[in-house]
Amino acid sequence: MRNTKAKIYALFIVITAVVACVSRFFLLSETLNDSAHSSNILLYSVYLFMVLSAVFSALYASCAKKNAKTFDFEQAPKGIYITSIALSVTFFYDFLHQGYNCYKYLTETDYADYTYLVPVLIGCVSALVCCFYYITVAATAKNTNYDFRNFTLLHFVPLVWALSKLFLIMFKIVDITENIDMACEFVLLCALMCFLFSMISAIDKKEDSATRVFIFSCVFLGCMALVVGVPRIASLIFYGAKLTSVTYSAVTYIMLGAFSLSLLKDLNKRSKLN
After folding, report:
1. In 3-state terms, what secondary structure has residue 109?
2. Structure pTM?
3. Mapping DSSP to helix (H, G, I), strand (E, B) and coil, where does residue 250 land?
4. Which of 94, 158, 181, 266 pairs as cysteine with 77 (C-beta 3.0–4.6 A)?
5. What is the 8-class DSSP label of residue 211?
6. C-alpha 164: how far from its chain's center?
7. Cβ-contact 161, 127 below 8 angstroms
């Protein structure tokens, strides 16, 4: 019965996340096409389906049976290995992109605003360290002698990266009806921090089974990565000449969502075997 409910909630999660993603793409398209005013229906539908995604993610986490421990890479899961490698690559490109942003800002600005520059620099450095961190995750998933769980301090580096971006958004955002892109990214980063905190907690409690918070954060992060990342990339493809505010972090967000879902998929597989 619990498994049936979990499957139904999983279906609702997919539907709400896809609808929110499509609505946000059309809303972004209206903005880029210099529409006189954005559709309020699209605006509120994005927020509505984001909330529904969070609700269904919580319901899924409450009834999904996950009796396996959170991390167990003895079976060398390919999904985690592939997403970790891809995430490492995207973090390295994010490092290059943020480094270029810093250089461009310093060379084109007479008086640097350190409330902007410092978070960008922190995000740049932490992105480089994240690159090496997820290589260790991939090495662990490959079932080598490395174990990423032994690198205690590195577990907090993705959190620093997320906080640096969250600070920049809080510095810029004014109105959630006017800055829907930033508002969605704000929610994504909150979901990411929830995922990272629950991941750190799970690493600390090695033998404990996965918590509902971890399951919820995996699912909701995957939803928000879809809602934020895919419309940005699609808009970059269709409206590249007009799009000036998109950063490469959109791809990183997508891969973070893929990584969290690969962890959940591996957890599902091991739970069925127990």
Report:
1. coil
2. 0.89
3. helix
4. 266
5. P
6. 14
7. yes
